[in-house]
Amino acid sequence: MVVREKILDMVVGCFKRHGAKRLDTPAFELKEMLTEKYGEDSGLIYDLKDQGGELLSLRYDLTVPFARYLAMNKVKKMKRYHVGKVWRRESPTIVQGRYREFCQCDFDIAGQFDPMIPDAECLKIMCEILSGLQLGDFIIKVNDRRVLDGMFAVCGVPESKFHAICSLIDKLDKISWKDVRHEMVAKKGLAPEVADRIGDYVQCHGGVSLIEQMFQDPRLSQNKQALDGLGDLKLLFEYLTLFGIAEKISFDLSLARGLDYYTGVIYEAVLLQTPAQAQESFNVGSVAAGGRYDKLVGMFDPKGHKVPCVGLSIGVERIFSIVEQRMKTFGQKIRTTETQVFVATPQKNFLHERLKLIAELWDAGIKAELLYKNNPKLLTQLHYCEDMGIPLVVIIGEQEMKEGIIKLRSVASREEVAIKRENLVAEIQKRLSES
Amino acid sequence: MVVREKILDMVVGCFKRHGAKRLDTPAFELKEMLTEKYGEDSGLIYDLKDQGGELLSLRYDLTVPFARYLAMNKVKKMKRYHVGKVWRRESPTIVQGRYREFCQCDFDIAGQFDPMIPDAECLKIMCEILSGLQLGDFIIKVNDRRVLDGMFAVCGVPESKFHAICSLIDKLDKISWKDVRHEMVAKKGLAPEVADRIGDYVQCHGGVSLIEQMFQDPRLSQNKQALDGLGDLKLLFEYLTLFGIAEKISFDLSLARGLDYYTGVIYEAVLLQTPAQAQESFNVGSVAAGGRYDKLVGMFDPKGHKVPCVGLSIGVERIFSIVEQRMKTFGQKIRTTETQVFVATPQKNFLHERLKLIAELWDAGIKAELLYKNNPKLLTQLHYCEDMGIPLVVIIGEQEMKEGIIKLRSVASREEVAIKRENLVAEIQKRLSES
C-alpha cells in the first residue's frame, strides 16, 4: 500500500502540474450508458442485481463516465483527472497485473481547441510520469484511427470487417504476424493478398520520416481519411519535438487499441525489456495508453452535441506489480507506517505518564506510538521500534521524572541524550526537520 | 472536490500520526459475508447480478470487510486506516448528507491489549480530527453495549425484545422520549412501567460522576454485565483525562448505535448547534462514530478465533456538506486547480516558443498552463489567469526574444519585470517559495 501511495502521489502530482482539476464520478452507471461503448469487451461489465429502481452496472473504465458527466452537465471544456476503481469480470491472473477490481488514473482534456496541442500534452504527461517513476526505458507507440481505417480501405478490406480486423491487429503485441495473418484469412475470410497488403503496413514503425513516407505511399495517399490522420500526426510530431520527447515516440502502424470510441490519434506506452527480462518472459504489456475520442460525449447528449476529447490512462496496477517485483528482487524493505517517535518506559506503572506524554506529541503534530500494555518490557518496546523502522524513542522513568528530564534515543545509533522535559517537543521537531 | 481533498488529507494525516498503515479491500464481498451483520439495515445492501461465479455484494461499510480480511489472513494485530467508497440502497436526501455512494474514513485497532488503551486512543483521534477541522463545538457521547443490555435486563425487558428496544433508543436523537415510549408500549408491547424505568435511565448523561452514580444504582449494580461495562467506562475516563479530552466526552445512557456487531464501548460525536443553527433546523446528525466489536472477526474465522477490535469512522460526507454550506454562506471561493504559472504571448505565431517554454517549466516541476490555441488574444489569456486564480504569467514576444529576456507578471498586482531567459525557472521558483 505504501508503494502504491507513492506512485499515485507522483502520478497525481504530474496531472496537477498540467493544470487538471480532480473529478469523481459514482462507481455505478445506468446499464444502458455502458452498452455498445466497449466493443468485444462488453461481456466483462459487472451488472447490479435488479432490486428495484434503475438497472445499474459497475463502471468499466473512467472514460465513458467522464463523457456521460460532460454531456449531462453540458460542460463544453474541462481538464480533469480521476483516480478511481474500475471493475471487470476477468479471472484474476496476477502475473499479468490484471485484476477484477483495479485502480485507474486518467487525465483528459475536453473541448474544441486548435489541433494536436492537447494531444501533444497528453503524450508529454505520459513521458513525464514514466520517466519520473524510473521504470526503465520505454517507448510510446502512436497511430491514428483514420490512418488505420484508410489502410484497411486501400488494402481492400470490406468495411463490414474493419472492426474484426482491427481487433486482430491489436493482438500483434502478443502473437506474431504469421499467426495474425492466419486468423485473418482462415477465420475472418480475408483474401490472402489483402492480408499481405496489411502485413506490409503493420510491420512499419518509425518517426517523422515514416509519416512522410506514408504521405507518398501510392495507395494510402489516395485515401482522404488516411491523409487527415497523417496530417495530424505530422503536426503532433512537430509539437513533440518542441516538448523534447519526439525520440520517445514511435509512429507504429500496428497499433490498433481495441476500444470502440477512439476517433483520431491513439497511443500506448510499453516498457522496453532488457535482454535478461526478455529471457524470463517478463511481459507486462502496456503501462499507459489513450487517444482521441471526439464522438463519445455526443452519444450521451440528447441533441448529439459533440465535445472533442483526448486523454490518457496510466496502468498503475501494472506499474505497482513491476515496482513490487523489483523491490522483491533487490530485497528492499519499505516502512508501512510513518511513526516518528515511540514513547517507552523501562518501569512498571508508568502508563499514565506515557499517555500524558504521547498526547502532548500528538497535539504537536508528531507521529507517535506506544504499546497498549500497562507494563511492557523495555526490550519489547525497543524491538518494536526496530521492526517498524521508528527512528526515535522517548524514554521516561522514575529517575527522569525526579530530575524533570526525559531521554531521547536514536534507534539506529542507540545513542541516548537527556533533555529537559519542557524542551522535548522542540528538540524532537528539530531532529525530525534535520533528518 | 478541492474541499474534499483537504478534509481527507487532514483526516488521513491524523490516522498516520497515530501509527496506522493504509489498507485497501475490494469493493465487493461475497454476499454471504455481509448477511446478518447489519441488523435492520441489511435491506440496504447492493447485490451484484448473478453472471456466473460467486454471488457478490457491494460493501456496506469498511468494518465488516476489515474483520473478514483479518480472519482470512489470520492477522492477530493491526492498526490500519481505510479511506474508501461504500454503497447503500437509499433514496439520496442530500440535505442530510446521505447518498447511495459515499466515502468512509475508518481507523481501527485489532488485537488483544490491556483494556481501554486503544479505545481511549480512538476517542483522542476523533477529538483531534473534529478540532482540526474547526467545525465548531462538539461532544462525543459514550456508552457501552453491556451497560445497555444490563439496563434492559434490570428494567424488565424480555431478552427477545432487547434488539427492537435498542433500535428505538437509537432514535432518541431524532424523536422525543415521549414518542419513543409510545412506540415501545404500543408497537413493541412493552409494559408501561418497564418503559418508564428505561426512561429514567436514558435521560441521564454526564461525566465520571454519572458512572459512579450508576455503580451505586440499586438495580443496575445487581447486573454483572452492566458492572463490567461501567468498570471499563471508568477506566476509559481515566485515560481520557490524561489525554486532556475528558470534558469533550459525555457518558450518555441513550446512546445505542444500531449495528449488531458492537460488544463493548460505543461512541458518537455530534456537533453542538449554535442557537441560529437550531432555528434553521440545520441538523447533520453524527459526524463520527464507532465502538468496540470483539466478536466480528471470529464470525469469519472457520475455527471461531476471536480478534478484539475497536475503531471509528469519520462521517466525511456530512463534514463535506457542512464545510460547503459554510463556504456558501460566507461566499468563499476556492481554486479548483493548483496552476502556478501561465505561459502567454501578445503576438501571433508564437505557439512554438510557448510550447518550448512550458515544457521547460513542467520539467522543472512547475505547475503551468497555456491556452490550446495557435493565436490567442493577450486579454483572453490574462482573463483566464484571473478566473482560475493563477498567480504568475510568463509573457514572451518578439521584442523579448530578441533581447533574450522574458516578462514575468504578477496577476494580482499587474506588475511586470523583465528577466533573463536563462534565469526564468530559478526566478519563478524563488517567487513561489516566497509566497
Automatic annotation (TrEMBL), chains A, B:
- Any GO molecular function: RNA binding
Q: Which SUPFAM superfamilies match?
A: Class II aaRS ABD-related, Class II aaRS and biotin synthetases
A biological process term (GO) from this entry? histidyl-tRNA aminoacylation
Any keyword Chloroplast? no
- Tell me where on the tree of life, at the top rank, the source sits: Eukaryota
Q: What is its EC number?
A: 6.1.1.21
- KW Isomerase (keyword) present: no
Q: What is this protein called?
A: histidine--tRNA ligase
Q: Output the PROSITE patterns linked to this UniProt entry.
A: AA_TRNA_LIGASE_II (PS50862)
Give the lineage: Eukaryota, Metazoa, Chordata, Craniata, Vertebrata
GO CC, sorted alphabetically, is: cytosol; mitochondrion
Which reactions is this enzyme annotated as catalysing?
tRNA(His) + L-histidine + ATP = L-histidyl-tRNA(His) + AMP + diphosphate + H(+)
State the UniProt keywords alphabetically.
Answer: Aminoacyl-tRNA synthetase, ATP-binding, Ligase, Nucleotide-binding, Protein biosynthesis
- Aminoacyl-transfer RNA synthetases class-II family profile domain: which residues? 1-346
Gene symbol of the encoding locus:
HARS2
Family the UniProt entry places it in: Belongs to the class-II aminoacyl-tRNA synthetase family.
